[in-house]
Design brief:
This protein has 304 residues and is α/β, with parallel strands linked by helices. It folds into two domains: 5-217, Rossmann fold; 226-283. The protein has helices at residues 45-53, 75-80, 96-104, 113-119, 135-147, 165-180, 192-198, 216-220, 239-242, 259-272, 287-303; strands at residues 5-16, 19-30, 34-38, 60-65, 81-84, 153-157, 184-189, 201-206, 209-214, 226-230, 245-248, 251-254, 278-283. The strands form three sheets. A six-stranded mixed β-sheet has the order 5-6-7-3-8-9, sandwiched between helices. It has a four-stranded antiparallel β-sheet with strand order 11-12-10-13, with no helix packed on it. The longest helix has 17 residues, at 287-303. Bound molecules: adenosine-5'-triphosphate (ATP). Adenosine-5'-triphosphate binds next to strand 2 and helix 1.
Length: 304
């Protein structure tokens, strides 16, 4: 029976000499989902993805991708995955369509050419040579070639690094098309907004470890909410709030561990002392802030 998971990893370790790049991670990616492996430079994302692709041998750990052990290099496995590396070589003298046709010819059951062009948004560029493509279109051609063999699972290493905002949006549309085609996608990224726009779930990796995992909403909620207001008063805040407060003139921001309790204390104090809380608002930080907060806490922990 096929597993509900396209990728199952337990206790994965990988060292380069004495340096441990991946320190015992667990990962599960469901069939049909877009999963993002996020993290700063050197976190161990590419090492992990290369183990899953079968290019690197782990030191220890259990790895199953579509039910296969990638390191055994079985032909059936290669037919079922698509790989888009950070940089792909394309033949300069072949058009978009010819490049895709060439890769299709290596596979027994490739995806129809028109479906590939449509999913990657390259239908209008089908007769164009690579050097005439924009950076974003070139990257989409890389994905088109990864998709050519009709894989069940696509690995995308940093699909939008270096893109302008417009090209990133086109790439996100393409990722959504891949989901429509029923593909499972594992992508690596430095960008939280990418996760917010396209990923079903994500794991944040720092220093060889996964420090957080969940839907974009779950990850964003790991950052504390902020209460902000302006109060024209010389009165001190109650002591239990003061320790969570940052003040700038009359403007005050509170990042409390317990939102409801803090609001209760704050509004009680304001009513009792007849203080106007101007522009009172509660904001959840964006996913980007959550990422910065998560990575900062992980750095602080590793320094302790
Ligand atoms: P980036 O976002 O920059 O691509 P990453 O999260 O993909 O980073 P990796 O490329 O997996 O990180 O690298 C993890 C760590 O392992 C880094 O410190 C890197 O310098 C180190 N490393 C990677 N490949 C090798 C290698 N072949 N030999 C020695 N160290 C390596």
């Amino acid at each position: 029976m096929e597993s509900a998971y396209a990728i199952e990893v337990q206790g994965l370790h990988k060292s380069y000499g004495d340096f441990e790049a991946v320190k015992g991670i667990d990962l599960q990616v469901k069939v049909g989902e877009i999963f993002a492996l996020l993290g700063p430079n050197g976190a161990g994302k590419t090492t992990t993805i290369e183990i899953l692709e079968g290019f690197l041998t782990p030191n220890s750990g259990h790895v199953r991708v579509l039910g296969y052990d990638p390191i055994k290099h079985e032909r059936n496995y290669k037919e079922r995955i698509g790989i888009v590396l950070q940089e792909t070589e394309v033949e300069e003298f072949l058009s978009v369509e010819e490049s895709i046709r060439l890769v299709r010819s290596y596979y027994q059951d490739p995806l129809p050419l028109d479906d590939i062009l449509a999913a990657t948004g390259l239908t209008d560029q089908r007769r164009v040579r690579p050097r005439k493509l924009s950076g974003g279109q070139k990257r989409r051609l890389d994905v088109a070639m990864g998709l050519a063999g009709n894989p069940d699972l696509l690995f995308l290493d940093e699909p939008t690094t270096g893109f302008d905002p417009h090209a990133r949006r086109d790439a996100w549309d393409m990722l959504r098309n891949l989901r429509e085609l029923g593909k499972t996608v594992l992508l690596t990224s430095h960008y939280m907004d990418e996760v917010e726009h396209v990923a079903d779930r994500a794991a944040v990796m720092i220093d060889g470890k996964i420090i957080s995992e969940g839907t974009p909403q779950e990850l964003a909620h790991e950052s504390e909410p902020t209460i902000s207001f302006s109060a024209d008063t010389n009165l001190s805040l109650p002591a239990e709030l003061d320790s969570h407060a940052t003040r700038d003139g009359s403007h005050c921001e509170l990042s409390p561990p317990n939102l409801v309790e803090t609001l209760h204390v704050l509004t009680g104090w304001a009513i009792e002392n007849n203080v106007q809380l101007e522009d009172l608002s509660i904001t959840r930080r964006s996913l980007d802030d959550a990422f910065v907060q998560l990575t900062r806490s992980a750095d602080e922990e590793s320094e302790d």
